[in-house]
Amino acid sequence: MHKYILKRLLLLIPVLLGVSFLVFTIMSLTPGDPAQLILGENAPKEAVLALREEMGLNKHFLIQYFNFIKGAVVGDFGRSYTSGREVFEEIFKRFPNTLILAFLGVLISVCIGIPIGIISATRQYSFLDSFSMIGALLGVSMPNFWLGLMLILTFSVKFRLLPSGGFEGMKSLILPALTLGVGAAAIVTRMTRSSMLEVIRQDYIRTARAKGVAEKKVIYRHALKNALIPVITVIGLQFGGLLGGAVLTESVYSWPGVGRMMVDAIRQKDTPTVLAAVVFLAVTFSIVNLLVDILYAYVDPRIKSQYK
Predict the structure, then answer these.
(1) Contacts of 223 (CB under 8 A, 6+ apart)
(2) Is residue 147 within 8 Å of 156, Cβ to Cβ?
(3) What whole-number distance in Å separates Cα of residue 63 and Cα of residue 6?
């Protein structure tokens, strides 16, 4: 297990290099001059050139990237072009907001998706099964930003029950968490149903029923535990994806998270902030996936034996 974890961590190095180089290249090719954006459109040309030299923007593209990697190795990702503060200081300030939002979104998806998936599998082809699958299809099909706008129009504009954006306490979490959780719940529902249908047709489930074991015990103790592995995979991927992919939702609700910070940084061509955020989220996503793989070993002892 220790060798497996070390190997996965070492594989992060080429992944981070590839991701950072790709993002750095895209940011370099996008139109706009960070120095001009900082000083304003009416700034003298001499001042813009001096600032470019001070920021190292007049150097070759590869030299700029090499300087970024050299600083990143020692934990220095530079300063934001717009605020002048350390970029990781900004990220750590906003990441708890993104983490809370992603956790609540996954919690909603689990609380909705797993029970509905179990009911659909145990009552296959019934009205409940058909209704839940139609609902899951709609949930998968709806874009997060559209659902977010509909929730704002309904609960904020029409009924004035919840705030439409910003961070004004726990009430501000409800709509963005629902926006993230509904789409994720649809995926969890479909995966739970599919996995449960496969498991409940196994011979050991028939044997348990033939021995007179109560149906609830057969479903929740025998079938569900063995059906959880693909569900855990989906939940882990959803959580990692929400940590780095809540950009649209955070923008719609003006949520002060890492996703909104990245959008603002891209608009201002704040390359250090964008690079540091992408690297941070890539590491977070990889660690979440590693923890999911380790969790497999505790759910299914057969997988744990493969690491020995």
Answers:
(1) 196, 199, 200, 205
(2) no
(3) 31
- Domain 94-307: homologous superfamily in CATH: MetI-like (1.10.3720.10)
Closest residue by Cα to residue 257 from 181, 191, 167, 179: 167
Task: Yes or no: say if 140 and 183 are a contact pair by the CB < 8 Å rule.
Answer: yes
Mean pLDDT on 260-279: 88
In this structure, what token pair is assigned to residue 16?
Answer: 């981070």
What is the distance between the terminal CA atoms of the chain, rounded to a whole angstrom?
7
Mean pLDDT of the chain: 87
Q: Does the pTM exceed 0.90?
A: no
To which H or E segment does residue 24 belong? helix 2-29
CA–CA separation, 30 and 201 (whole Å): 54
DSSP of 290-302, one letter per residue? HHHHHHHHHH-HH
Domain range summary for the chain, segments of one domain joined by +: 94-307
User: Closest Cα partner for 176 from 263, 110, 251, 91?
Assistant: 251
Q: Using alpha carbons, list the distances in angstroms from residue 275 to 5, 69, 87, 229, 231.
A: 25, 10, 9, 34, 32
Tracing tokens 């700034």 back to the chain, one arrives at: 43
Decide if 32 contacts 26 (C-beta within 8 A). no
- Range scoring the smallest mean pLDDT among 33-47, 61-75, 84-98: 33-47
State both tokens at 192: 């739970």
In angstroms, the CA 78 to CA 76 distance is 6
C-alpha dist (Å) from residue 131 to 26, 125, 211, 225, 238: 44, 10, 33, 25, 23
Nearest-5° angle of CA 156, CA 159, CA 164? 5
